[in-house]
Amino acid sequence: MSLINVTNIKIGNNVCSIKLPLIFQIEFECLEDLKHDVEWKVIYITSDGSGYVNSTSNSEGNTDNSVDNMMEQEKEYLVSNNKGEIILDAVCLGPLYKGILEFEFRVNPPNFSRLRPESVLGMQAILISGNYCDQEFIRIGYYTNNVYDEESLVENPPDLPILDKIVRCIIDQPRVTRFPIKWDNDNLIDFEGNNLNYVINSDTDSNTTEDNVDTNTTDTMDGNTTEDNVDTNTTDTVDTNTTEDTVEYTEEVRKRRYEEI
């Protein structure tokens, strides 16, 4: 089974302005002492899946060079391999020992000035990802809806979003996806405790055997096809000759009988 089981997540700061931090109280159970850190990420996905438009621009108001350098280093660390995913923050916890643990994950919202104006409003997605040794073992997804808090703006939204007037509502109905990974024993274990290394090796051996059978079968089928063609041609020739001989013999017998009469 998975050595980390998330038992509960409480969403804080809901419903609120989209400019306020995202807060998650995460409780999980560690079934064994772990040798390495567990990395947790909070990922934001916009309604159109486009992500940040300009990946080089900084947040507004940052003029200190040291702050800019720290932000650039953070961007490199929080880069996502999937286009459209915005990694808001990541934290490593460790060493972890067997037992029940809980921590608060507070992250800043995305920089909405770097998003497409049409992707700020509407349904978005927030993902909490658990990783061990660069392997994702769990992904918990929430839908969130960004809407104006004034009816007049809802009916006639401006071309450029007014961030101060938009509220965020996270729908507390998470969708959980678990992935089999290799833990400290180097075995690929799924969340039910099945050793997938054995399954993969068995499938590989089975596929190898089937490939050999298929190859042999193909060769055999080619041989049978050739033999069938030879047999058919031979049979046709024999049948034809036999029929002609029979016809000629019958005519001769008829002639002799006619002459005798």
UniProtKB/TrEMBL annotation:
A Pfam family per the record: ASF1_hist_chap
Major localisation: nucleus
Protein name: Chromatin assembly protein, putative
Region of interest called Disordered, as start-end residue ranges on this chain: 202-246
Cellular localization per UniProt: Nucleus
Gene Ontology MF annotations: histone binding
4Fe-4S listed as a keyword: no
Regions of compositional bias (Low complexity) in chain numbering: 202-244
Family per record: Belongs to the ASF1 family.
GO biological process, one term: nucleosome disassembly
GO CC, alphabetical: chromatin; nucleus
Cited InterPro entries: ASF1-like, ASF1-like_sf, Hist_deposition_Asf1
Alphabetized PANTHER family for the sequence: ANTI-SILENCING PROTEIN 1, HISTONE CHAPERONE ASF1
Keywords: Chaperone, Nucleus, Transcription, Transcription regulation
